[in-house]
What we know:
Blueprint lengths: L1 H18 L2 H23 L7 E5 L8 H5 L5 E5 L1 H10 L4 E5 L3 E6 L4 H18 L6 E6 L7 H31 L13 H31 L7 H22 L6 H18 L14 H6 L1 H13 L9 H21 L4
Parallel strand pairs: 1-2, 1-3, 4-5
Antiparallel strand pairs: 3-4
Amino acid sequence: MGDLRSLGQLTLSRLRVMLREPEIIFWVFAFPLLLAIGLGVAFSDPMPDTPRVAIESGSGGERFIEALRADPEIEVRILGVEEASDALRRGEVSLVIAGDESTLEFRYDPTRAEARTARLAAERSIQREAGGPAPVTIRPQEIEQRGHRYIDWLIPGIIGFNLMSTGLWGIGFYITQSRQNRQLKRLIATPMPRGHFLLAQILARFVFLIGEIPLLILAAWLFFDVPMAGGLLSLTMVVLIGAASFCGLGLLASSRTRTTEGASGIINAIVMPMVVLCGVFFSTARFPDAMQPLIRVLPLTALNDALRAVYNDGLAFTAVAGELVLLATWGIVAFILALRWFRWQ
């Protein structure tokens, strides 16, 4: 009985400690509920789950445009040749229909789950409209060319996700843990400026990038044959600005948190919505138009767009100046606020 009484008292003691921390209550009970509601709203529209089909303008597929648009299982649009190819690579469409009226060409990436659904639905509608069991020849073409596969599109998103998560967790969690262990309190007696301490966290993060990003690029090339189309200088500029931006957010997230539980909640509140919304694993075009203005101003969206423009399309960093300015703005504002609100204990 004594052991059970001791266990009960220890449990009650832990509960009292948790109840005295309002942020724990919020992140344990309120945040999951709010996140579930937000994601439910984002994915309640059936349109994002409907496979999109692109018909190349001027191709024989235009003959079947009305029949395809009448199929509720797919969404159809007409795009130019280059636009259709880019949309397929970015995951904005699951299938591209090209060719002439007698022989249609279905181009798709077989690694995408929705590509099979789009192909079957489009073929069914076309054959029904043509009026026979197989009056139109359909030639499937699986995309295997480097730079046009889903994996080519995915790798820059993984790099962007890594820059975000390591910047937030590596800095935010460390600072909070040091504050909780009273290690930061000892620095008050030193002549070190607060700004130097915060800036040192960012510079140390830059050092780790020297091994971190080349390792990801090398792994993508060795295991998945993913090439880097852009220049090293342009990629370096995007990575540095992106890393600095999320380091600033990590500093801001940990500027006043007293417990690691509170820091984990704040960081998850930043990370989880952006993982879903910002095009890490699937295109942002899958979300309703009403959400696009919000998605476009998020820092991970800007970082992923800039990385893909350099990594996949071979553009210079000057071509993504808008995205880089947005990233820099997020980082500078976050750093200034962190500098103002930061406390040692």
